[in-house]
Amino acid sequence: MGRRKKTRSISTSPEVKSCLDSNSNSISNSVSDSGEAKSKTSIEQLESQIHELQISQSHLHNLIALETLPVFHCRAGNDNAVDWLTASERHFAYLGIPAADRVKIAATRLHGDASPWMCWYESRYPSTAPWSIFRYEFLRFFRPESLIAAVCNLEQNRSVKEYEVEFLRVAAGAGDPSPEWSDEELMRHFVGGLKEEVRRKVESFRPKTLGDAMDFARNVEAGNA
Question: What per-residue confidence (pLDDT) applies to 204?
C-alpha cells in the first residue's frame, strides 16, 4: 500500500487575511453597486418610456380633435357661435386637451368669414393667451345681439316653472362671458319678466341670487309665500 501524502496546512498571516478580506469586500461592494446602477438605469428607462407614451397619447388626442371638431364658417343662418363654442369645450374636455393647445386647435376649424377674425385675434393676443380670452372675444364678435335682447325682453306668460326653463334656455344661448353679465344681473332680468303680481312679492323678499328668485317665484305661485 502506498503512503498517504500528508497535506500541509498553510497558515495565513494577519496581513494576508486582512488583504483577502479587503478584496472580498471590494468585490461584494462592486457587485452590489453594479446591481444598484442597473436597477437605477432600468427605472430611468421606464420613466422615460412612460413620459414618451404620455406625449404620444396627448399628441394623438390633439390629432383626433383636429379631425373631429366641427368647422365654424360664420355663415348667417348656418352656424350658431354659442353652439359651436359649447361643442368645442365639451370636445376638449372629453379628449383631455391641454388648455395651452385649445386655441391652436380651434383656429384650424375657423373657416370662411371666421378666418379673418382669427387673423385679427392672433395679431392682438400672444400665443400663450388663455382660452378664456379667446372665448370672450369670440362670443363678443360672433354671438347674435338678438340673443342678448331675448334675455332682457323675456316675459312670463305661463307657469313659473315653464318660464324658468325658457329663461335658462335663452340665457344659455346668449352665452355672454362678460363680467358684467353676473348672476345678480341675470336675477334682475328674471324677476323683471315675471307676472306683475308674482314679481312684486318676489321683489319684497330681496333675493340675492337667481336661484333665490326662482325659489321665491315658485313659492309665491304655489301660495306658500
Answer: 93
